[in-house]
Amino acid sequence: MLELRPNCECCDRDLPPDSTEAMICTYECTFCRRCVDEILDNVCPNCGGGFSARPIRPQTARRPGVSLEHQPASARRVSTRHSIDELREFSATAKHIPPESR
Predict the structure, then answer these.
(1) pLDDT of amino acid 66
(2) What Rg do the C-alpha atoms of the chain give, in angstroms?
(3) Of 6, 21, 88, 99, whose CB is crowded by the most CB atoms within 10 A?
């Protein structure tokens, strides 16, 4: 089950569970759409993969026990240990390769 991290790992922008601005990689690294587009060039700085929009967990349980109420989002904030320049340098090595070919 997705962790639904509460923030962008780059700029620390809040990304609540219903945010349409949250992007994740296959390992659930979480960044806002702006950072993915303007800094990371769709290259995850942790794994080198691409990003997809993070799904939104339903607020209402339309099936018993299946909702944000029953599986709440994480409250643990995660931040990158790399500088913006390091992130840009890393993404430059792979941004020309389509995510499905990395």
Answers:
(1) 94
(2) 14
(3) 6
* Amino acid at the residue 99: P
- Is the pTM here over 0.85, yes or no? yes
Closest Cα partner for 69 from 86, 57, 83? 57
What pLDDT digit, counting tens, does each position of 2-34 carry? Answer: 999 999 999 999 999 999 999 999 999 999 999
**pLDDT (tens digit per residue) in 54-102:** 999 999 999 999 999 999 999 999 999 999 999 999 999 999 999 999 9
Cβ distance 91 to 40 under 8 Å?
Answer: yes
Domain boundaries, the chain: 1-95
Residue type, position 18, single letter:
D
- Residue 37 one-letter amino acid: D
* Sheet with 22-24, edge to edge strand ranges: 30-32, 22-24, 52-53
